[in-house]
Amino acid sequence: MIIPRKTLSLALLIIIFDSSAYKIGYFLNSLIHSHYKIAYSESMYYLTFQHVAMVVIATCASTIIGVSLGILATRSFGKNLLYPINLISSISQSFPPVAVLALAVSSVGFGIKPTVIALFIYGLFPIIQNTIAGIISIDKSIKEASIGMGMSEWDLLIKVELPLALTSILSGIRTTTTINVGVAAIGAVVGAGGLGALIISGLINENQFFIAYGTISVALLALLFDSIINNIEMFTTRSYKL
């Protein structure tokens, strides 16, 4: 699959943006407090890597669990679980990210772990809902025809339901990923690092430049993830049409 121009442009823009922040940041170190020198001891590349790692780990975990729960709720033996699963996923989304993060910190301590846990919990709802909606929306005549051809429930899921629901599932993953990129910035409050560290350090030292740089970096990263998943969605849709 050829990388689309928009995705490539966003990736290059982030690299250039990180590189310039690294150089300008060290140039301005003499103008800001010494506390900020310690907070900014890592380059933007490292902060971006931390941010991406947290988002990818949490989103992958949310995808595995969310899609599994969505499938379970649409099986003949799991229909009684549809309401509880919907309820639990709705509750997970209703809690503010900061509250979820605080609960996670009390359980596993400070650092990356509570942030990943908070992102995982917060990202379940869109994936579960879109998985259920995608499978349920499939025309019953298609399912009946597949069963009439001798397909088992497992064959029906793998060969018919999941391919047809893939667009909806990817849309949920896309929503979760975009949300997680923004929410991950809050993790800097509990020592998780990432691009949020740049924003927090800027707030502490009243340095508007780094607040803006961190905010724009998070926005560019969200656009990049959104573009990548959108490309995957279009590619898979086109493949099934062929």
Automatic annotation (TrEMBL):
Record InterPro entries: ABC_transp_perm/SBD, MetI-like, MetI-like_sf
Q: How does it sit in the membrane?
A: Multi-pass membrane protein
Report keywords, A-Z: Membrane, Transmembrane, Transmembrane helix, Transport
GO process annotations (BP)? glycine betaine transport; transmembrane transport
Which residues belong to any copy of the ABC transmembrane type-1 domain?
A: 48-229
Locations listed in the record: Cell membrane
Query: Which spans are transmembrane here?
Result: 45-73, 85-110, 116-138, 181-204, 210-229
Provide an example Pfam family for this protein. BPD_transp_1
The record's Gene Ontology cellular component field reads: plasma membrane
Gene3D superfamilies, alphabetically? MetI-like
SUPFAM superfamilies this protein is in? MetI-like (SSF161098)
Record's PANTHER family?
Answer: GLYCINE BETAINE/L-PROLINE TRANSPORT SYSTEM PERMEASE PROTEIN PROW (PTHR30177)
What family does the entry list? Belongs to the binding-protein-dependent transport system permease family.
Q: What is this protein called?
A: ABC-type transporter, integral membrane subunit
